[in-house]
TrEMBL record:
Organism name: Brevibacillus choshinensis
Name under which the protein is recorded: Rhodanese
SMART domains, per the entry: RHOD
InterPro entries, per database record: GlpE_sulfurtransferase, Rhodanese-like_dom, Rhodanese-like_dom_sf, Thiosulphate_STrfase_CS
Gene3D superfamilies: Rhodanese-like domain
Amino acid sequence: MSLVLQTPAATADQAARHFLDKLSVETDVSDVWNDLHHGVTGFQVVDVRSEKAYQECHVPGAIHLPHPAISSETTAALDRDKLIVVYCWSPACNGATKGAAKLAALGFRVKEMLGGIEYWRREGHPVEGGLGTTAPLIG
Ligand SMILES: O=S(=O)([O-])[S-]
């Protein structure tokens, strides 16, 4: 018996809808780096980790907004015309998901950056912060 085939696959239309829906709320390290590197200005990157983690190492230009602190008051300065790209530590962390959920509830368009700062660093992209690439990879 096939473990792959035992559950019927979606139709091509269903699969297309599913994957487009996924891409509407997710982006990845490589795509974010590519856009920042080429000066794309249609989104703002938000680091939702702790103050300490942000101060030690973050994506260049990222705004700091810890996910527990997200509220209408703390997001007042964010540009509502721009998509927000949120990230946290790694694929093992759901801080970005929590932050994205809160931001969306406040009316922002938002995507999660898959992989977080861990994969940003693994892929060799530049960072800002006091410890730079020597900062811890877990919080
Ligand atoms: O700081 S965090 O681990 O909740 S993203």
